[in-house]
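Running co-folding for zinc ion.
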Amino acid sequence: MRHASRALRGARWRASGPERRFHGLRACAALTFTSNHPLIMRTTFGLVAAALTVGAWASPLVAQDANPAPNRREGEGPFDKLIIRGATLIDGAGGPPRGPVDIVIEKNRISQVVDVGFPNLPIDQSRRPKGPAREIQAEGMYVMPGFIDLHVHTCGKPKAPDAEYCYKLWLAHGVTTVRGVPLGGFEWSLSETKRANANEITAPRMVNCQRPGSGRGWGAKPILTEEDARAWTRWAKEQGVDCLKVGAHDPNVMRGLMDEAKKLGMGSTAHLQQLGVGNMNAADAATLGLGAVTHFYGIFESMYENNDIQPYPDTYNYNDEQWRFGQVARQWNLVKPGSEKWNAFLKHLKANNVTLDPTMTTYMSGRDLMKRRNADWHEQFTLPSLWDFYTPNRENHGAYFFNWTTWDEVAWKKFYQVWMEFIQDYKNMGGRVTPSTDAGFIYNTYGFSYIEELENFQEAGFHPLEVIRSATQHAAEELNKANGKPIDMGIVRTGMLADLVIAPENPVANFKTLYGSGFQRLNDKTGKVERVGGVRYTIKDGIVYDAKKLLADVAAMVDKQKKERGISKLPVAAFVPNQ
Ligand SMILES: [Zn+2]
């Protein structure tokens, strides 16, 4: 029985011999061959359930789509010529900081990057590119490529009714491109993507991934066979969808999706959810051509030392989210860092050019709930309706802190150590790892969570320059991997799109200074604590956005909602002494 179920697993590591080899497609063929076997029936049933759940959990498809953003009122440009003067440049390609430089932008492209002198000496005026031009005086400031977030969903009703709220928080934190997985409902996503990419709205560039079977025009036909998978992928491409967000599908369905996506030049990213991972872990999905593994699901399962399925406690129930999110962290000691399986799996991912998109920020509340709930930015920038959604509740996805204990946090702390070690090893062998957020759940507010993810990368062992390269060049490469085109963003270099972040503090010294709520520092001259930092300007497609102004708009949206509710603070359960 156990042996049979192993054979049905789709791709598994062969344990025999010193060199473990991969037999993914052969195992999948076995699945087709024995399709009248009772185990398959059970498997098929499981997969239908899984498919429904992929559609339902965390999905803006269930919640209502947000109000589309209003037509753009913010931002200046693009300009015939814009010159950023005297900045220190962090190019995104891993080059060390250098400056002062002048960066010339013509319309929406970078046309020149010019060294104009030396630190601590007056700038050599003769070297400077000439106007007439619109200028940004950026002496003492830092310029980076715009950040790319490869895992987002937009706002949605009721938690954050206006898309503008998310868009402004993203831009205010330097995020100039987002990959929606999905952004929202199928038709809504197509429309907002078009408007964002034409700069009709104040929003980052958008790349639109959709889930198999979605789209009103598809007619809700379930994706059960390889042919269904191929047909939907072709249909989605015709509708203008850019890429696929997949789950842990049945191996035949996954093969159809991946193969067809590859033919059409469409990328893919997978959340290999626990309901389906028994038949499709990350090693299996990599074999079939998956582009990116998002979160950690399917990764640990690909290298368990003594298990094949996670050994859940006997009272476990996936639909009880405290079980779901509490137990998943208990995988940390089922794998062995540096083991043969660990290394073989890393090599397998690398050989298949898989990107890891961990979204570490998504799960941070699991390891320190108090910190997350009391983060500096909530009061000013988290909408009360979003706060309601975060607050423990058995129905809202990610609101699972019914009775969150020291045990739970310790498990997550251990889990992060192993997870981070894996990510660090993958980066060091040349693998691509990208920061992204999946914000809007679990005390994880849009924009702020991106900066938190940069900090997580540093904690994993990345040097800040490696972190920035992950956020820019590597993320851009992931977006273009499937279509084979060279990247035209993600590096500050002549010819690239003018997507840039300008910040007053040095991010290499301290990522915390990029939070929109600023960074608290003691001013020794005055003896007072002050808040410094934040992004100053975000440039997308040659259009200059004042990041502080965008944040002020968001703060006003939060204020307005509080006034409508007649509250002055976000509601929390108070402890009343002597009762
Ligand atoms: Zn997500």
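Result summary
The radius of gyration is 24 Å.
Residues 2-41 form one domain.
Job closed.
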